[in-house]
Amino acid sequence: MITMDTIIREGNPTLREVAKEVSVPLSDEDIKLGEEMMEFLHNSQDPVKAEELGLRGGVGLAAPQLDISKRIIAVHVPSGDLENPEPTLSAVMYNPKILSHSVQDACLGEGEGCLSVDREVPGYVVRHNKITLSYVDAAGVKQKIRLKNYEAIVVQHEIDHLNGVMFYDHINQENPYALKDGVLVIE
Ligand SMILES: O=CN(O)CCNC(=O)c1cccc(Cl)c1Cl
Ligand code: NI
């Protein structure tokens, strides 16, 4: 089971490597890893389990955060509305690739956090507002989807991990809250 002890922290060189594509058809090992990554996200978002296991909450996770330099990410974005418990996006993605993106940029008003970063790093993380993404799903099927707003931001945070990029690499050092005209701030 993945716990906070499994997650490597900044300073570990694996976080700065470009991860390798996984072979398709998927190996049992890679399928099992994806399942464990998704289980971690579920546990981290469950108040009882998170407290029991001492987990920080997360809506995404990338294999390099487990010191495994493979292009595998898991995302589980709850709808945030108790009436409708269905997540807005829940998937394990193998070899995810951004095929195209909007001109429109966006950032989260609250900034971003990372389980591999044991500190707050304030500031806007400007990303693409909309992306067209291809990936291989847990069943080994090639998928092509379009994402926007929060879901697109989360997936970009995870794909950054596959390329050795940390969220704070995008923050303007002079003025962390500087914004170019037209950037959408997502609250
Ligand atoms: O790489 C994944 N993590 O580090 C998990 C913890 N961070 C989050 O869940 C998180 C929090 C805020 C904004 C974004 Cl975009 C993300 Cl992804
Ligand atoms: Ni992260």
TrEMBL record:
UniProt xrefs under InterPro entries: Peptide_deformylase (IPR023635), Peptide_deformylase_sf (IPR036821)
Cofactor (UniProt): Fe(2+)
Domain of life where this protein originates: Bacteria
Reaction(s) catalysed by this chain's protein: N-terminal N-formyl-L-methionyl-[peptide] + H2O = N-terminal L-methionyl-[peptide] + formate
A biological process from GO: translation
Key words, A-Z: Hydrolase, Iron, Metal-binding, Protein biosynthesis
Iron among keywords: yes
Listed Pfam families: Pep_deformylase
Cofactor note: Binds 1 Fe(2+) ion.
GO molecular function, one term: peptide deformylase activity
Keyword GTP-binding in record: no
Binding locations of Fe cation: 114, 157, 161
Active site: 158
EC number: 3.5.1.88
PANTHER family: PEPTIDE DEFORMYLASE, PEPTIDE DEFORMYLASE 2
Primary role: Removes the formyl group from the N-terminal Met of newly synthesized proteins. Requires at least a dipeptide for an efficient rate of reaction. N-terminal L-methionine is a prerequisite for activity but the enzyme has broad specificity at other positions.
Family designation: Belongs to the polypeptide deformylase family.
NCBIfam families in the cross-refs: pept_deformyl
Official protein name in the record: Peptide deformylase
